[in-house]
Amino acid sequence: MTVSTKDDKRATTPNGLDSHDVAGQVVEERQLLVASNRGPVTFSQRADGSFSARQGSGGLVTAVSAVLQGQQAIWIAAAMTAGDRTRAAAAEEAGETLITPHGSGSRFKLRFVLPTTEAYNQYYNEISNPLLWFLQHYLWDTPRSPDITHKTWEAWREGYVTVNRMFAEEIIRACDGLDTEPVIMLQDYHLYLCGGMIREMRPQAIIQHFIHIPWPDPDYWRLLPAEMRRAICEGMLGCDIIGFQTPDHARSFLYTCEAYVPDVGVSYGDGTVTWQGRTIKVAHYPISIDTEAVRRTAHSQEARAYERYLPTYFNEFTILRIDRAEPSKNIVRGFNAFDRFLEAHPEYKNRVNFIAVTQPSRMDVEEYRDYLDDMSATVGRINAKYANVETGWQPITIIMGESYPRVLAAMRWYDVLLVNSIIDGMNLVAKEGALVNERSGVIILSEGAGAALQLGEHCLMVSPADVEGTAEAIHQALTMPFSERQRRGRALRELVEHEDVREWFRDQLADIGALVQSRQSQ
Length: 522
Ligand code: F6P
Prior knowledge:
- The chain is α/β, with parallel strands linked by helices and about 525 residues long.
- The chain has 2 domains: about 30-55 and about 70-285, Rossmann fold (3-Layer(aba) Sandwich), CATH 3.40.50; about 290-500, Rossmann fold.
- It contains 19 helices and 17 strands.
- A 9-stranded mixed β-sheet has the order 5-4-1-6-7-8-11-10-9, sandwiched between helices. Strands 14-13-12-15-16-17 form a 6-stranded parallel β-sheet, sandwiched between helices. A two-stranded antiparallel ribbon has the order 2-3.
- Helix 4 crosses helix 5 (about 150-175).
- About 45% of the residues are buried.
- 6-O-phosphono-beta-D-fructofuranose binds near residues 58, 60, 188, 213 and 362.
């Protein structure tokens, strides 16, 4: 990285972007407007009226916060909590349109979209999560669900469409008054209609949309009524560039457009869609982690404090999993595979502990509450089956709650990291584990995780429904010669070190820059 000085024309930004390359020029010349449902922080109001801000959770927020550090970007997000709404109202009262999220250290600013509680509930808890997330992770038991009813349509029109329109209008307000056309970077499945709405209001807009989650085949999209799936595709085609995590998901999107959007032209070779006189680029940009920050947190004082009590959960062998309590993570099957492993290899009783660090998630959605219950019931059953009262051994422990330093502290010590998701856009847990683990631990990775494409060669791969195969993989991992574990561990670490999250950002900006240049030369 070049050292930056005030008048050095080749200076790099804090993100390592070089002002001489196309990506660097984009951020130097244009305002970045990033929009996502969840913002970088959630606010709470203290008794004295002041506000405290807590960093938002999840891969999207972590990745985007990392790449925006040091950028003078504007981040537009929904007010998700009462604290967010009060903070937004306080800003309005003070005549501020922009909020500084983390205090004076941050250069990016925040603008809130303020839907009514009811509209937000319909958009987030009825459409985005139980419908779109479930569809895009193949989570339905299709003979029984979903049922698209008048209630779904109501939530679509009054929630999803309404909140997307509010985002589009807020983004347009942020564009107004800027001398140069800004770059709009939309994030994820909550905002599928936004690109089209912005394009209608501002035909010259530069819009990119990155989808963090998988994109299923067109056959599965047929479970949504034609009007909805077409609105989603056409909304996205309002953008200039649409990014996915993997080439497979990008290709599925092209198939879906070809299947459901009338008068569309699809070029699989170029990865483009032509529609209504415009050409839209469809590409893949695998997301990653901020390697420096992850290492720093893993060795921070807070993480070190956990070293005092975490070892009480470890054993001769330790299997770890880290997830939100989320059906797509396939946690229950992972426990069942461990049960099967203990049945087949009783010599491991008393010697191996399975630790699941779990964060409850989306508890307003029934399916998530039920899944958490299923997890607890399965752990209860397995522990009752094997627990040894004499030695005090209990095979599975769930550690509940949200602490990133604790997660990273635990990752340093696993022998096996189990990532058996049904399907995952990427799965950053696998990348974090590969980077910070210090025991040459083996990663058992689902073929359905986007990370499989980059890391698969050095992991033990499993098919997500294959309980027997996953049990065998656990056995293979625990009996693997140490030299083999070391070889795999080293290869995984090097791979992750070379694909930092900044690459993900830089590659997207480079494509946006190329688009801007080609527009200017027309
Ligand atoms: O961060 C991972 C992720 O799966 C993103 O793709 C998505 O936007 C986000 O989680 C949604 O999570 P939540 O509902 O907690 O905001």
